[in-house]
Amino acid sequence: QKEVEQDPGPLSVPEGAIVSLNCTYSNSAFQYFMWYRQYSRKGPELLMYTYSSGNKEDGRFTAQVDKSSKYISLFIRDSQPSDSATYLCAYQGGSEKLVFGKGTKLTVNP
Amino acid sequence: DGGITQSPKYLFRKEGQNVTLSCEQNLNHDAMYWYRQDPGQGLRLIYYSQIVNDFQKGDIAEGYSVSREKKESFPLTVTSAQKNPTAFYLCASSQGPGGHQPQHFGDGTRLSIL
């Protein structure tokens, strides 16, 4: 079983749509959960960071963590063309190693 | 502005050549990391360093070497032993090791074979 599963997409939505991005993981030792946004030819940018089950909101973005189901989600409200990017989920246990999903490519069409 | 600077943005390697990728940070972070990103794959850890003059191998260290002589700098050398070096290389840093200190990334160096 892979440590992290993330649907690669691509995902194409109209402007203004609500976007849902998801990852599942298998390692119960993961304690910290992150979402990164990566534009083409750029490095990943930290979007959301959380370490507890439940929801964390930041503007149009909401990160949801369900540790019992080993499942995390990122919701984007009122999506904009500028949200078009690849979104990477990432997990970390107590060590230095960050485990990444393969990324979901999102296109928001005007 | 604080951040992580990687140079060059694009690099070409000839057969049998070693090349060095630069990574500099002015965030006063203790920990630094090198990742490799290939199309359709997640980021894979090459090397990391928690403190000056110390570094550890990641998952795919073969064919790579690093040094950490200064807190701000963590250069990566891709040696001729790395037979498939074409990839996007990303440097990251965090205030300290462990998940309670999230990692922040530079904008990468794209390495290709001539």
Task: Describe the model.
In chain A, 0% of the residues lie in helices and 55% in strands. With 110 residues, chain A is an all-beta fold. Chain B is mostly beta strands. The radius of gyration of chain B is 13 Å and the shape is globular. The termini of chain B are far apart. Chain A binds chain B through residues 4, 8, 31-32, 34, 36, 41-46, 49, 51, 88, 92-103, and chain B through 4, 6, 31, 33, 40-43, 45, 48, 50, 56, 58, 90, 92, 97-100, 102-108, 110.
Q: What's the main sheet of chain B like?
A: 7 strands, mixed
**Subunit organisation of the chains:** heterodimer
Rg calc of chain A: 13 Å
Number of strands of chain A: 11
SSE sequence of chain A, one letter per element: EEEEEEEEEEE
Rg over alpha carbons of chain B: 13 Å
**What class do helices, strands and sheet pairing of chain A give?**
mainly beta
Low-confidence stretches of chain B: none
Largest sheet of chain A: 6 strands, mixed
Query: What global shape of chain B is seen?
Result: globular
Structural class of chain B: mainly beta
Q: Low-confidence runs of chain A (pLDDT<50, min 5 residues)? A: none
Question: Which percent bin holds the helix content of chain A?
Answer: under 10%
**Which two protein chains have the largest interface (Cβ within 8 Å of the partner's Cβ), and how many residues from each?**
A-B, 27 and 27 residues
